[in-house]
Amino acid sequence: MALQNWLYAGNTLRLRPVCITQLPGKYRLLVPRSTGRSQAEEFIFQRRFFVGIGTASAVVLGGVTSFLLGLSPQTGRDLKLDVLYPIEGYSRCLEPNEGFEFIYPARWVGDQTLLRRAVGKAELERSLDLPPLNDKNSTNRRRGSSSNEPKVAFGPPGSNGELNVSVIVSAVPLDFSIEAFGGPKEIGETVVKTITGARSGVKATLIESTVRQDSTKQLNYYKLEFQVESSSFRRHNIAVCCAENGRLFTLNAQAPESIWSKVKQQFNTVADSFHVTT
């Protein structure tokens, strides 16, 4: 807190040094009538005093931020401070251009494959050179990534990709409605049937399906818990899907079945935090 004491004598502005004493529940300013210093000495004293108070203020503000995050996690999340500072072990992924946000374990990192693809795409968009005519894939690369490619993905550093959370945003007709498939159970069954039919030898089993309603945006978030297994893997998934303005948003968190009990709480926290922001 920067403190100032200004005294006016006619048209002359003169500074007096001040000191602070703390009483129960408040601060009291003591302003001496005379110090015996010259005006130059008083100016130097005041300058050093206020610079010191300003520096202390910056330290206090940083402490206040940490204090608020620890005392009231929800307040920090409402202010989106977890984009910069982890709150209770979670950081926020905020994608204003894509129109969604969610929180994820703070120690997780961005998927490096996605980052490399994003850099490559940006380089292609900036390039003024025409692609070689014999490059059959150049047109596809310039069109960007597939609609089924995640916009973001996070996982533990050094992992093999079996444990991660990702978000896909796909274009759908403006009149597309998830509710047309039925209630949460019917929607969940439709999803697992699609997964089972997508690849030979893969079986998906629905465990639970619920809906979370956003009355403000008149939007439903369908949360699906299911298992996916084949001869080579067994995974446990929690997905959240919703549709708005011609876009289908799908968050998917997956983990090997062997560690599901360890990450179940984390996955539910991530899924429940997913929101469309557009």
Layout of strands and helices, then pairs:
Blueprint: E1 6-9, E2 12-15, E3 19-23, E4 26-30, H1 39-71, H2 73-78, E5 90-95, E6 100-105, E7 109-110, H3 112-126, H4 138-142, E8 152-155, E9 164-171, H5 184-198, E10 203-214, E11 219-229, E12 234-244, E13 247-256, H6 260-273, E14 275-276
InterPro entries: Mog1/PsbP_a/b/a-sand, PsbP_C
GO molecular function: calcium ion binding
Region (Disordered): 129-157
For the structure shown, list the relevant keywords.
Mog1/PsbP_a/b/a-sand; 7-stranded antiparallel beta sheet; PsbP_C; single chain; 278 residues; 14 strands; Protein Transport Mog1p, Chain A
* Largest sheet geometry: 7 strands, antiparallel
The appropriate CATH architecture of the domain at 68-125 and 147-276 is: 3-Layer(aba) Sandwich
Helix and strand sequence: EEEEHHEEEHHEEHEEEEHE
Low-confidence spans: 1-34, 47-63, 123-146
Q: In angstroms, what is the radius of gyration?
A: 29 Å
- Give average pLDDT, whole number: 74
First and last CA, distance: 38 Å
CATH top level class name of the domain at 68-125 and 147-276: Alpha Beta
Strand order of the largest sheet: 7-8-9-13-12-11-10
Shape: globular
Summarize the amount of helix as a percent range.
25-40%
As a percent range, the share of strand residues is 25-35%
CATH level 3 topology of the domain at 68-125 and 147-276:
Protein Transport Mog1p, Chain A
Give the structural class. Answer: alpha+beta
Strands, count: 14
CATH homologous superfamily designation of the domain at 68-125 and 147-276: Mog1/PsbP, alpha/beta/alpha sandwich
- SS summary, helix count: 6
Keywords: Membrane, Transmembrane, Transmembrane helix
InterPro entries: Mog1/PsbP_a/b/a-sand, PsbP_C
GO biological process, one term: photosynthesis
Pfam families: PsbP
